[in-house]
Amino acid sequence: MSRRADAPSLFDSDPGAEAAADPDADRERTWGVGELHDAINATFVESFGTRTWVTGELRSLNRSAKGHTYFELVDPDPPDHSGGYNAPRLNVTLFAGRRKRVNSRITASGSKVGFEDGTILRIEGELRTYGARSTVQLLMTDIDPAFTLGVVAQQREVVLARLAAEGLVGLNAAATLPYPPMELAVVTSSGSAAHADVLNELDRSGIGFRVLSIDSRTQGAEAESNVVAALRTAESLGVEVVLLARGGGSATDLAVFDSERIGRCIAGLSVPVFTGIGHETDHCVADEVAHSSFKTPTAAAAAVVAIAGDARRRLEHSCAALGTAAPGALNRAQRDLEAAGRGAAVACRSHLDREERLLSVSVERIGSTAPRALRLAAGRIDDLGSRLVPAGNGALERNSTRLATLAALVEAHDPRRMMERGWSLTRDASGRVIRSPAQLSPGEEITTLLRHGWVRSTVTERSDQSDPAPPGTPAGAGPPPEEEPRP
Questions:
Q1: Between 453 and 482, where is the model more confident?
Q2: Interior angle at CA 24, CA 20 and CA 29, nearest 5
């Protein structure tokens, strides 16, 4: 493809000469890259001024070896974006030389604002382009700590109001607290100062607590899920009290304990939760929903120690009182026992004397009445003897006659007698006596017992009539004339 000879080209050896020769070249300005960035920065100053305040949620915090700080600001709840990859964001750079001013502002606020992912900030800076990467950035110069603290407090109040409306505030406070609690779970970051403070306080008490340490992040993106999982693990292990501890820090460092999820978890636990989070002035959602809250981790541990110590003192007092009262009680019991013994001896002697007198009277009565009673008894025995012999003989004769009659009846009804007269006894294959034709079926085998021997036969027909027709008699001919059965 050919090119017109008079058409300018980026690849001409001297494009500037041809442009100078073109009378229309000055109508559209051509910017250098650096010039363009300078122009954009000037526009930023003209539109936004030399200082611009911006608010957003801190993300992707990074600190360089030279002391510079880099992060992004994003809208916490963007109205038209999901907050994901395509959400609007602004690069922020805090140079090491400007950190002193920012830190002084944070220190003046009581050091309650920390730089952590998720913190809502209001910061001031110079809006500039970063030519090396062709991006827009804010060169941070100042911070408004009060704004961040206000956001944190507002979010806390919203969460507490929601939990209170659902009746969750005070729910864990109703959980039964054993007296004294000896099975403890400490939920905090293992190896932290808070962890060491709690264990030292429990150990110094000299009380034999059984302590389970459950490691949990208490700051950062994973802290919320870590704390919830640790609390549920403590409940599943059957401990009597959970100590949720976290050392001091900025308000933003402790913000995880304002989490609605953690608040709901604590409220729903069946085991009492003691919180020791931050310093004396710090207060969070977890403190509001817990069974008891204390100003520091050490104070939370000391509260458990105090309960156990009180129980120990009561036990020691009871033991001491028992030791003091026991000798006196034993002496009184011994005196009472001796008095009771003397009284029993007197009463026993009196009773024995009375019984001895009664026995003497009875012996005298027996001595006077016994001979007469014996004579009367002997007479009655003689009379009974004279009547017993005739009566016995008569009874024997009557019973002998009755027995002979019964023997004759038994002999008359003996089956052998019946068989001698021509009767027989028929049984089926199982040995059951046949009393009715309905018990048999054609083809069934039966055994007939006779006077002499037995006969096994097979049923060919049956009838419910009492008198069978002789063999060869036509059906319906009727029974034969009655005759005496023959053997």
A1: 453
A2: 80
pLDDT for position 483: 45
For 34-143, CATH number?
Answer: 2.40.50.140
- pLDDT score, position 3: 44
Burial class (CB in 10 A: 0-12, 13-18, 19+), 318: exposed
CA dist., res. 83 & res. 89, Å (int): 10
Q: What is the mean pLDDT of residues 399-420?
A: 81
Compute how many other C-beta atoms are within 10 angstroms of the C-beta atom of residue 123. 23
How open is the CA angle 414-418-421, to the nearest 5 degrees? Answer: 145
CATH architecture of 152-308: 3-Layer(aba) Sandwich (3.40)
pLDDT in tens, 145-180: 888 777 778 888 888 889 999 999 999 999 999 999
Q: Mind spelling out the 3-state secondary structure of the chain?
A: CCCCCCCCCCCCCCHHHHHHHCCCHHHCCCCCHHHHHHHHHHHHHHHHCCCEEEEEEEEEEEECCCCCEEEEEECCCCCCCCCCCCCCEEEEEECHHHHHHHHHHHHHCCCCCCCCCCCEEEEEEEEEEECCCCEEEEEEEEECHHHHHHHHHHHHHHHHHHHHHCCCCCCHHHCCCCCCCCEEEEEECCCCHHHHHHHHHHHHCCCCCEEEEEECCCCCCCHHHHHHHHHHHHHHCCCCEEEEEECCCCCCCCHHHHCHHHHHHHHHCCCCEEEEECCCCCCCHHHHHCCEEECCHHHHHHHHHHHHHHHHHHHHHHHHHHHHHHHHHHHHHHHHHHHHHHHHHHHHHHHHHHHHHHHHHHHHHHHHHHHHHHHHHHHHHHHHHHHHHHHHHHHHHHHHHHHHHHHHHHHHCCHHHHHHCCCCEEEECCCCECCCHHHCCCCCEEEEECCCCEEEEECCCCCCCCCCCCCCCCCCCCCCCCCCCCC
pTM of the model: 0.50
Give domain limits for the chain: 34-143, 152-308, 420-456
- pLDDT at residue 1 greater than cutoff 50: no
φ and ψ at 6, to 5 degrees? -90, 0
Distance of CA 157 to the CA centre of its chain: 32
Which of these ranges, 213-217, 261-265, 321-325, 447-451, has the smallest mean pLDDT?
321-325
Instruction: Check: CB of residue 301 under 8 Å from CB of residue 202.
Output: yes
